[in-house]
Amino acid sequence: MNIDIGNVLIDEAEPGLDADSLETLDERVREAHQRIADGRAREEFGYAALNLPETTDPDAIRQACTEVEDSETILTVGIGGSALGAATITAAIGDDETGHYVLDNVDPARTNSVLAEIDLAETAVHVVSRSGTTAETLANFLVVREAMTDDGVDWTDRTIVTTGDDGPLRSLAKKHELPALDVPDGVPGRCAALSTVGLVPAAIMGCDIEALLAGGEAGAESLAPSLFDCPAYAYGAVAHALDQQGAGVNVMMPYAEGLESFAEWFAQLWAESLGKEGEGQTPVRALGATDQHSQLQLYRAGPRDKMVTLVRPENRESLTVPETEIPDLDYLGNTDLGRVLDAEFDATEASLADAGCPNVRIEIERLDAHGLGRLLYDMQAACILAGELYGVDTFTQPAVEWGKRAARGLLGAGETAEARAVADKYCRRIE
Ligand SMILES: O=P(O)(O)OC[C@H]1O[C@](O)(CO)[C@@H](O)[C@@H]1O
Predict the structure, then answer these.
(1) Among 131, 185, 380, which is best to mutate for testing ligand 1, by the most ligand atoms less than 8 A from CB?
(2) How far, in Å, are 25, 191, 204, 260 from residue 79 at the CA level?
(3) Domain 50-212 -> CATH class
(4) N or C end of the chain: smaller count of CB under 10 Å?
């Protein structure tokens, strides 16, 4: 993976950085790198995520999938980091034959639609929850289990569980002797893509999970005490510095259809890790070239409050655009769709620079298992580095708990002050 920060350093960039500010920043990167290295060595909570390429056991994952390895469909039941990593990996490198469906919301219309579409007798169900108590995940699991029973499918034959040491899911797995994998110790869900949490669907699909981990390992080996020697740290440091200069929004805009879900995964990683004590940069999910035709107007001509991260593989599949007799379109004839996409990328990058919108280019050699593993790892390292620079607790997410307590109270799981607060809402309806 490489990163080009040139369009952050040009005079036009507003906000922007200069060579002196990068040198000053590099001193802080050196300190942060040491803190991260120490945290990894001691396998401290959160920092342990950067050890996953070594600590994840692909054989244990394959072993757990043995009974369902020939499934035509995989159904992931999880939410947040317990679903986004798996979805990102199969969207980027999965095969088209095996469908991967993700139930990461509790919209009955969606769950009904998925259950109507898949053959549960040919589906591997992977239920993932680090805590084992997430209401959305458990509600969906209970619905899926009932649907399997109604279809005459023994759910215990087709269900794998990945969860913590305790909680309802672990108890269920023990009671029914389900194949059960452990969530990695000391790793928040949003940093667990390169582990049991994210790799089961890819393993069932026959993806090269060892290559994913090798890509992560390459990222681990790239970590260095200077941002000038480490793409991941350069990205984290530059994003933080731009935020401090007013770029409170980070538009993650991959130019590869297979990376659309990656932008969602990045959004959780960046928001849930850095959004604390009034700090944090707002991630926006976008897709190139598609969103040039929906959001680019704002990025180029709107407030100077954002940076744009452009991601692409240096090597793409090819698909020739046929010659055409249509006047004015001959320039498209005999070109290649990948060439068109890269021209759009280059044009958008230059357009943003021309308008003074700071933008960073991230490139991976190709969108394969190794390239994706490296990208996921480096974004995690960048986020952890940024967390050190912000001085926040990168690995917890206390702000999400209020809403959980309110929802539980509203659903009758016990009286909560939060649920009472919901009832006190000030209403002003406009019909
Ligand atoms: O894996 P669990 O415990 O079900 O949590 C799912 C998601 O919910 C959160 O805890 C936030 O509520 C995320 O950090 C996590 O990825």
Answers:
(1) 131
(2) 36, 13, 20, 17
(3) alpha beta
(4) C
